Amino acid sequence: MNEAKISIVVRLRAFVLSAKWVAILAILAVFTVILSSCATGGDSSRSSGQGIPVIFDTDICDDIDDTWALALLLQSPELDVKLITTAVRNTPSKAKVVAKFLETVGRTDIPIGIGVQHNNAGHRQQAWVEDYELSSYPGKIYQDGVQALIDTIMKSRRTVKVVAVGPLPNIAAALEREPKIAKKAEFVGMHGSVRRGYGNNPKPSAEYNVVAFVKEAQKVFTAPWEMTITPLDTCGIVHLKDQKYQKVLKNNSTLTNALIENYRAWYRQGILNGNKDLSEADLDKRVARKLNSSSTTLFDTVGIYLAMSTDLVKIEKLPIIVTDDGYTRIDENGKAINCATEWKDLGAFEDLLVDRLIK
Q1: Radius of gyration of the chain (CA)
Q2: What is the DSSP letter of 51?
Q3: What pTM was estimated for this model as a whole?
Q4: How far apart are CA 15 and CA 268, in angstroms?
Q5: What sign for the dihedral angle of Cα 187, 191, 196, 198?
Q6: 10-residue block means of pLDDT along the chain (359 residues)?
Q7: Residue 173 gets which letter from DSSP?
Q8: Which of 38, 121, 279, 312 has a CA 20 to 30 Å removed from the CA of 356?
Q9: In the chain, count of helices (H) and strands (E)?
């Protein structure tokens, strides 16, 4: 065999070997994709993991705005939800609402942590989960939600945003157990009242999420992490009504239907709590009148928004202290906190909220 033929044979062999390796690599790539799909249950709606890592700490069921915030969170691809923890009072029962909502919308990839429990009392969304058992949730349930929160933060390679929209026993307990979480996380919260109070009152209020557990709020507000809050100044004036609300009410998607079902259960139970002798017909009329007209104040949705953007609000870095009577005061000795004190465009936020919920 002459040199030319030998050269051709060598090249052919090299080409064949190269082609084999390409085929092997292609097979491995396909196998990797299949494994990844299996690991997430093949649910295309789940986070790609490219968003901002988020832990959502919620006192869902006390007010209905938490459920609106949960819906917005799930519709925001900028945010990669690593864990949802339930806060204050009957946290196992609240976890049922979170679990059923996640299962209903196909997001059982999200783990749920049961937070610090204070009682076994009922709540206003209990009717929605009467037929649901927490043990049936296909995803992960952590009985110790505080430890799950700590572990999620400490194991993350990226900074985690802890988005808290209720009183702060879980977050304070986590800081007590593992202070290092403040170095690996940022805090975003729906807390306080800087210059305006409830109902846009020009006098600041002792805002519920702070005054309900003052010592815990003080611990969180003095921890060495970056903090951003929406006080009542901005979150206390968010409502959906007229056409914006009607778009959500009439959207008829799995997510918005679950949201409105919870709104109905919550509002109905609230009326019953104050008037147990009301006739069924009168009760239905009152519920329908409210549900067909507008939302309640959607405080917590602004907390979700601030986790992904601050474009629509004015942010002031203010030294804030939490007083013993539950006020958030500007004080030169306070921690510097990013406070959303005014809206640049409230209407644009309402539009964003509606567009996300109905997409």
Answers
A1: 25
A2: S
A3: 0.87
A4: 73
A5: positive
A6: 45 47 45 38 47 99 99 99 99 99 99 98 97 98 99 99 99 99 99 99 99 99 99 99 99 99 99 93 97 99 99 99 99 98 99 98
A7: H
A8: 38
A9: 14, 10
CA distances from 236 to 247, 278, 298 (A): 22, 30, 7
List the beta bridge partners of residue 315: 340
What DSSP state is assigned to residue 229? E
Q: With the C-alpha atoms ordered 32, 112, 170, 177, is the resulting torsion angle positive or negative? A: negative
H helices within 156-309, ranges in order? 169-177, 181-184, 208-211, 214-221, 232-235, 242-249, 254-274, 280-291, 299-308
Return the pLDDT at 18.
52
Given a contact cutoff of 8 angstroms between Cβ atoms, the answer to whether 344 and 313 are in contact is yes
Coil, helix or strand for 84? strand
Residue 325, helix vs strand vs coil: coil
SS3 22: helix
Neighbours of 77 (CB within 10 A): 12
Task: Give the model's pLDDT for residue 30.
Answer: 39
Nearest in space to 96 (alpha carbons), one of 213, 229, 262: 262
d(CA 310, CA 307): 8
CB burial of residue 162 (10 Å; 0-12, 13-18, 19+): buried
Residue whose structure tokens are 């194991």? 155
Helix, strand, or coil here: 228? strand
Strands (E), the chain: 52-58, 79-86, 112-114, 141-142, 160-164, 185-189, 227-229, 313-322, 328-330, 335-343
Closest CA to 298 of 213, 210, 232, 212: 232
- Tell me what percent of the chain is helix, strand and coil, each rounded to the nearest 5: 50, 15, 35
Q: Collapsing DSSP states into helix, strand and coil, what is residue 315?
A: strand
* Distance separating the N- and C-terminal Cα atoms of the chain: 69
pLDDT at 43: 37
